[in-house]
Design goal:
- There is one protein chain.
- This protein has 403 residues and is mainly α.
- The protein is built from 17 helices and 4 strands.
- A two-stranded antiparallel ribbon has the order 1-2. A two-stranded antiparallel ribbon has the order 3-4.
- Strand 3 (188-190) and strand 4 form a beta hairpin.
- Helix 1 (2-15) runs parallel beside helix 10, helix 3 runs antiparallel to helix 6 and helix 8 (197-206) packs across helix 11.
- The protein is elongated and about 110 Å long.
Length: 403
């Protein structure tokens, strides 16, 4: 719980809400640096004096990785739904930095369409024809994936226009956060308005609750995870005096799982209490102050523990453990194979190949015994008996000696 409390204090005072986050400013800067480095790798050559200009880097990526699903206004989609530059990155499923975004991006590029979420429904519109590079299906899919990733990098730190005006810009959504748009239920107070959860999620995104802020929210979660595992490991090693191999913090240890549950539960409790007090009944303020990464991690831990207690994961875990043992054995076997001198092995086996063909032609046991004994001597193999074999074996005091 102490680890969770420390992480909770970091979350409350250093993460907070997007507009007031101390860590958020740092993560924004790190994302800017990542975008500039990616642009440089993609061929960005800024004019003198523009080397540190993130707007210039974003502008280059926007031109380099153009897509057909980058509509920004309601007019761009024929007035089918309301959309603006502040929310088109969350409404467009292809702009999501997750497997859902990748799927819809490749689909939209192949079919010249755009896929959006509005009012809890999936909306698909036709766009101008879009031709992917590549000579066959595999190369076109590869180009579509590269195009999707490059376009995500051009949007993750905001647009070139917004960043050129010294603004933060609208980034991309936290992975899978776009699914909240399908939750068009509930009535939440936002000032004088009452809106559903889908609208609340979009408005939170517009307030800066994006992937950059998601990185900031993940830091206290990571801190809690590392602190709990480190303290557990130290206790096992120095208090219980266990071997180092048994001090590796894995999910197979029940006490570690319980410590993680309490740690992350404490973090979530402090985060929720802070959001509730500071929001003053405004659900939008509550949502933007809530650490969704922490709550997601805590939920996963609870569900995994329930499955383990109910025995749901036991057969699967046994299967996974068996595969791990097989993998470890194969790795040991491969290491042993690497030590084999192949040239020496081939040279040695070459001596026996003529013998094999000759043995096939021998027709009686006496000739076979004579041939084998003769070749053992020629090959330098010590014979484990002396004199006549039958006489040697009749003497019970004698023993075969293999060298």
């Amino acid at each position: 719980m102490a680890c969770g409390a420390v992480s909770g204090l970091v979350d409350i005072f250093l993460v907070g809400a997007p507009s007031q986050s101390v860590i958020g400013k740092w993560t924004d800067a790190q994302v800017d640096e990542a975008v500039k480095k990616f642009a440089e790798k993609s061929g960005w050559s800024p004019r003198p004096g523009k080397e540190g200009n993130v707007a210039s880097a974003i502008g280059y990526l926007e031109r380099q990785y153009k897509v057909n699903y980058d509509q920004r206004y309601s007019a761009d989609v024929g007035g089918a739904f309301n959309m603006s530059t502040k929310n088109h990155h969350i409404k467009s499923l292809s702009h999501s930095p997750d497997i859902i975004g990748l799927f819809f991006s490749v689909l939209n590029q192949f079919t010249s369409t755009s896929s959006f979420v509005s009012g809890g429904k999936l909306v698909t519109i036709k766009t101008e024809s879009f031709e992917l590079q590549g000579n066959n299906l595999v190369s076109k899919v590869f180009c579509g994936i590269v195009n999707w990733f490059g376009h995500i990098m051009s949007d993750v730190a905001g647009s070139s226009g917004s960043r050129g005006n010294i603004g933060r810009g609208s980034g991309v959504a936290i992975p899978f956060f776009e699914l909240f748009q399908f939750c068009n239920f509930g009535k939440f107070n936002i000032g004088q308005d009452k809106q559903d959860l889908a609208t609340l999620a979009v408005r939170a995104f517009q307030e800066g609750y994006d992937a950059r802020f998601g990185i900031a929210m993940s830091l206290p979660v990571l801190l809690c995870e590392l602190l709990v595992r480190f303290i557990w490991m130290i206790k096992q090693r120095f208090y219980f005096k266990k071997p180092l191999k048994e001090c590796i913090p894995t999910q197979s240890h029940t006490d570690l799982r319980i410590m993680l549950l309490f740690g992350h539960g404490t973090l979530c409790l402090m985060d929720g209490a802070d959001a509730l007090v500071r929001s003053g009944g405004n659900w939008l303020m509550f949502f933007t102050r809530m650490n969704i990464i922490a709550w997601g991690r805590f939920t996963v831990l609870v569900l995994k523990e329930i499955c383990l207690r109910a025995g749901i994961q036991a057969p699967l875990q046994k299967q996974l453990d068996a595969y791990k043992k097989i993998t470890a054995s194969l790795q040991t076997y491969m290491e042993q194979l690497k030590r084999i001198d192949l040239a020496a092995f081939q040279k040695e086996t070459a001596q026996y190949q003529p013998l094999e063909s000759y043995i096939d032609c021998i027709e009686d046991e006496k000739s076979l015994n004579f041939f084998l004994k003769k070749n053992m001597v020629e090959l330098g193999i010590s014979i484990p008996w002396e004199g006549d074999f039958d006489t040697f074996m009749r003497d019970k005091s004698r023993h075969l000696i293999y060298e």
